[in-house]
What does this fold into?
Amino acid sequence: MCDSILTKKCSKYSAACCDKCYKKIKFIEQPYCYSCGKPLLKEEQEYCSDCTKLRKSFLNNRSLLLYNDKMQESLLRFKFHNRREYALFYADELVKRYGKQILSWNVDGLIPVPVHREKYIQRGYNQAELIAKEIGRYLKLPVYENRLLRYSNTRAQKELNPAERLKNLEKAFRFEENGVKLDKIVLIDDIYTTGATMEACSRALNKAGVDTVYGITVAIGQGY
It folds into this structure.
């Protein structure tokens, strides 16, 4: 992300991005994949090569920023170094770009991608939940942070190839019924790389009776 956040020169969201740093942010622009939202190299493309080969269980995902070196460092600080205030910046920018679209989906609410209890205890928070709560506050949408749970503390996804990532997450997520029927929801997460996490979560939600799943993520990799 911008150097000000990476170097911690900006302490809170109110000063998170000066004009100089804001210009360095690589926002996702068209063309991007209609399904997963990855930026594409050719205007005539509608889907990335991955989505052409395999239909996703979620309907659409939209992302804010390209997952490059700057974003990798920014998200590492956000996830592992207690930089919780980053959620305010991410959510604000997501709402600016996709707020109207999220509301047009007419969803029942937002569900953050969960982390395993052990990781939650280590970090003290779920980064996706922080973002979801800020988006929910802006758009006045409910956030169901305890409906989708992660029961398996799986291997780190970065160690695996795309096929292994999805297999690694099989049966890792479970949707908890609590009497409130959800038909359409938005999954919120920080990173979309191969899409294995969103796919596994969507399958768990579909299996539990959620008809339509959308996705909103902070950063995403390049599509081809």
